[in-house]
Amino acid sequence: MTKAEIVQALYTRVGGFSKKESADIVDLVFEMMKETLGRGEKIKISGFGNFVLRDKRQRPGRNPQTGDPIKISERRVLTFKASQILKQALNPRNGQPAAPNGQPAAAGAAPAPAAAPGAGGGVASADPVVKE
Amino acid sequence: MTKSELIDALAARTELTKARAELVVNCVFDSMTESLQRGEGIEIRGFGSFTVRPYKPYSGRNPRTGAPVPVPAKRLPFFKVGKELKELVNNSRHLAITGGDDSDD
Fold first, then answer.
1. Distance of alpha carbon B79 from alpha carbon B67, whole angstroms
2. B16 to chain A: which residues are within 8 Å by CB?
3. Does the distance separating the beta carbons of B6 and A29 come in below 8 Å?
4. Strand, coil or helix: B30
5. Do B6 and A77 touch (CB under 8 A)?
6. ipTM, two decimals
7. Interchain contact, B35 vs A1, CB within 8 Å
8. Which of A25, A67, B37, B74 has the maximal Cβ count within 10 Å?
9. CA A67 to CA B38: how far, in whole Å?
10. Percent of chain B with pLDDT over 70
């Protein structure tokens, strides 16, 4: 799934928006989340999960290619903690494996190409719905 | 920021009513949840990508009693931070982390 498909879902399910408006709104939602995280504020989306910020101290590491010791500088990282509700949604039938074991559940696979290329692009906003 | 604060912020930045903004935000996360349920990853450029990772069953233990507990195979969502967001977050290091504790759903 790409942003274009989220735009499509907004367009068909919520309705009342043009495709362009739907695209601008979805862009804005992720933009606002980025702004929030970018000012050091975590995000909690109930039923989905928390985007948590964590400060890491400097630590020793190694260049995996050469094995040379290097310093890993202190940094702030973002981690996602899925909510129990989301975890349960991925694992239906309590106690039963959700997907047969050994069968790749599309993990890590590249998502299918966007159905409507361009619909979710970073088009500049000249839109009545989204204020600048 | 909580989901309801995100809804309020969206309403404030657009011409949307809070009720409409709520429908929008719910639709975004619902469609993402459905994609993950299908086992399909989500890629949001500039933000990050979500994938579903399968985990094998293993034998765990009740931390209180030490009794062995079988843990069934499961699928869990995994988020990989996008490059742009990663840098944005790291550049906020001089600011305190805000937004309350990490608990709850």
1. 32
2. 25, 129
3. yes
4. helix
5. no
6. 0.91
7. yes
8. A25
9. 40
10. 95
Residue B76 neighbours by CB under 8 Å, 6+ apart: A82, A87, A90, B52, B53, B55
- As its CATH architecture, domain A42-97 has Irregular (4.10)
- The answer to whether residues B58 and B83 belong to one domain is yes
Of chain B, the percentage scoring pLDDT greater than 90 comes to: 93
* Domain presence at residue B77: yes
Same domain, B47 and B34: no
Mutation test of the interface with chain A: which of B15, B90, B103, choosing the one with the most A Cβ atoms within 10 A?
Answer: B90
- Is the per-residue pLDDT at B28 higher than 80? yes
B75 within domain boundaries:
yes
pTM, to two decimals: 0.79
- Residue A93 has what pLDDT? 72
Residue B88 lies in a domain: yes
Do B60 and B76 reside in the same domain of the chain?
yes
Residue B20 structural domain: 1-38
Chain B interface mutation, best of A7, A25, A93, highest count of B Cβ atoms under 10 Å: A25
* Interval B57-75 mean pLDDT: 93
Buried b / exposed e across A13-26, counting CB within 10 Å, b at 16+?
Answer: ebeebebbbbbbbb
Total domains, chain B: 2
Backbone angles phi, psi at B40, to 5 degrees: -100, 135
Which of B24, B26, B94 is the best residue to mutate to test the A interface, defined by the most A CB atoms within 10 Å of its own CB? B24
Indicate if B71 and B32 belong to the same structural domain: no
- Whether A29 sits inside 8 A of B33 (CB atoms) is no
> Could you tell me if B47 and B29 lie in one domain?
no
Per-residue model confidence (pLDDT) at position B100: 75
pLDDT digits (tens, 9 = 90+) for A1-50: 999 999 999 999 999 999 999 999 999 999 999 999 999 999 999 999 99
**CB spacing of A41 vs B97 below 8 angstroms:** yes
